[in-house]
């Protein structure tokens, strides 16, 4: 699936990352509070530049297993405030996964919801997916509340299913079916 960029929402532009996004990208990728509930750790500017170089080419979904990682650009601020991802998990079973990460300085304004809604639309309307999931640490209440605002339902709570940052961690799994998505759009 090739897209016409940028994707426009009410207040945001979703587009492939560009090398010039390094300052904005590093501004949130270097923050420990962003990674409290994520597998990765904050990165140095050099590590961030390496990651950004890889993300620059994440601009289409052509086959199962690929991910589309887009910069969340806020024109009013003139900067990238986060990222959003759509992963194509299974072509045969038409499954996908979304994710999002936002600079805490811009949280609480509905930007993550807006970006995630756009990724759901890409998955269901663009790729023809049947089911899209999202996962988070149960302690990350803002993340699972966002999933619920998107109309996703909690399907699983895996208790102590893995060692996460040195301790047993739980996992919430949320999902949305295409028919549920379409009903919510009507």
UniProtKB/TrEMBL annotation:
Keywords: Transferase. InterPro entries: Acyl_CoA_acyltransferase (IPR016181), GNAT_dom (IPR000182), N-acetyltransferase (IPR051531). The keyword Transferase applies. CDD domains: NAT_SF. It comes from the Bacteria. The keyword Transferase applies. Residues 12-179 form the N-acetyltransferase domain. It holds the Pfam family Acetyltransf_3. SUPFAM superfamilies: Acyl-CoA N-acyltransferases (Nat) (SSF55729). PROSITE patterns: GNAT. GO terms for molecular function: acyltransferase activity, transferring groups other than amino-acyl groups. This is Protein N-acetyltransferase, RimJ/RimL family. It comes from Lentzea waywayandensis.
């Amino acid at each position: 699936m090739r897209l016409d960029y940028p994707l426009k929402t009410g207040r945001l532009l979703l587009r492939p990352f560009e090398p010039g996004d390094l300052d904005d990208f590093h501004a949130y990728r270097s923050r420990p509070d962003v990674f409290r509930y994520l597998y990765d750790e904050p990165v140095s500017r050099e590590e961030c530049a390496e990651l950004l170089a890889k993300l620059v080419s994440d601009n289409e979904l052509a086959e199962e297993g690929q991910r589309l990682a887009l910069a969340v650009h806020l024109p009013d601020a003139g900067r990238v405030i986060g990222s959003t991802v759509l992963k194509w998990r299974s072509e045969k079973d038409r499954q996908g996964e979304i994710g999002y990460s936002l600079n805490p300085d811009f949280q609480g304004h509905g930007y993550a919801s807006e970006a995630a809604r756009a990724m759901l639309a890409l998955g269901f309307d663009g790729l023809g997916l049947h089911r899209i999931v999202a996962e988070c640490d149960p302690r990350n209440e803002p993340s699972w509340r966002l999933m619920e605002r998107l109309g996703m339902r909690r399907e699983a709570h895996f208790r102590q299913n893995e060692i996460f940052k040195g301790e047993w961690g739980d996992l919430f799994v949320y999902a949305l079916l295409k028919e549920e998505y379409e009903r919510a759009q009507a």
